[in-house]
Amino acid sequence: MRETKLSAHDIILPLFVSEKVERRRAITSLPGVFQLSVNEAVEEARHASELGLQALLLFGIPAAKDDRASAAFAEDGIVQQAVRAIKQRCPDLVVITDVCLCEYTSHGHCGVTKLDGEHFHVLNDETVELLAKTAISHATAGADLVAPSDMMDGRVGAIRQALDEHGFEETGIMSYAAKFASAFYGPFREAAESPPQYGDRQSYQMDSANAAEALREAALDVEEGADILMVKPALPYLDILWRVRKRFGKPTAVYHVSGEFAMVKAGAANGCFEERAAVLEIMTSLKRAGADLIVTYWAKELAQWTQE
Ligand code: PBG
């Protein structure tokens, strides 16, 4: 009689690969999550695959950052190296790469910025060009899907066109269609070493009060060629998830983000509830609200729990 079922096939495991780490480095605010070297990322991918997971989402932490995010589209960049290594050892795993500049810019913004006295602007079109370059470099390394998370205007269309022009017609796009400016990204910014050095991300991420705008954003991504739509964060935006899934009927993903993870970890550590029961309830609610795919830091545990 169960209407909603969770399966390892619905779950995407995020991995942080760092050029600065020998083996693995713990992330204090994300208990149990690590920054990995390329070799360790391959081990992690193999383990994930043995557990029955089918897809990974890769984030990179470069050795050096600059104001134009050059390491994001370097042929031998950290994500590009990790994709090649993982696809060689685990060819059946679906490798998705996060396409954004914030981990690679010295100022931590998701795009190229221009300072203007006390204010700053994110230069949308210049950023979109660099994002398209980044996407091509990921596809060249072997990524199956690219996931633009920057929220610039027009980036899905630009990436689609660039991929097609370079012979990557089969590389898919999972777009962060409705990504809200959220308090819940805190631990991720420690993990990815990407807190903005000035200002915030409210000029390009969405206002949490806006649902109609989320649908307009998603409609643009559909028109521009997105294959999978993503809503992010998860629990505070179940209504958005539901509406996006209903309105477009596209494969829809949701990102249960770092702060949501940390919150449950802290509650469980304080004896407020049992972690496994809480996680299963949350993940089931995401599926019930329309998620086909869930990005979560509990991916490996869930692969086991859903089999038991
Ligand atoms: C940015 C990006 C962020 C996350 C994924 N991609 C953070 C941000 O916008 O600051 C957050 C994921 C999480 O919190 O788990 N490119």
What is the fourth-level CATH superfamily? Aldolase class I
* Class inferred from helices and paired strands: alpha/beta
Highest CATH level, the class = Alpha Beta
**Low-confidence parts, pLDDT < 50 over ≥5 residues?**
none
Number of separate domains: 1
**Strand count, sense and closure of the main sheet?**
8 strands, parallel, barrel
What distance lies between the first and last C-alpha atoms, to the nearest angstrom? 18 Å
The CATH topology annotation reads as TIM Barrel
The coarse overall form would be globular
Query: What is the share of helical residues?
Result: 25-40%
Order of strands, main sheet, comes to 1-4-5-8-9-10-11-12
Describe this structure in words.
The structure is a single chain. This protein has 308 residues and is of the alpha/beta class. It has one domain: Aldolase class I (TIM Barrel, Alpha-Beta Barrel), CATH 3.20.20. It has an eight-stranded parallel β-barrel with strand order 1-4-5-8-9-10-11-12, surrounded by eight helices. The protein has a two-stranded antiparallel ribbon with strand order 6-7. Helix 4 links the parallel strand 8 and strand 9. Helix 1 crosses helix 2 and helix 2 packs parallel to helix 3. The longest helix is centred in the middle third of the chain and has 18 residues. The radius of gyration is 18 Å and the shape is globular. The two termini are 18 Å apart. The model has no long low-confidence stretch (mean pLDDT 96).
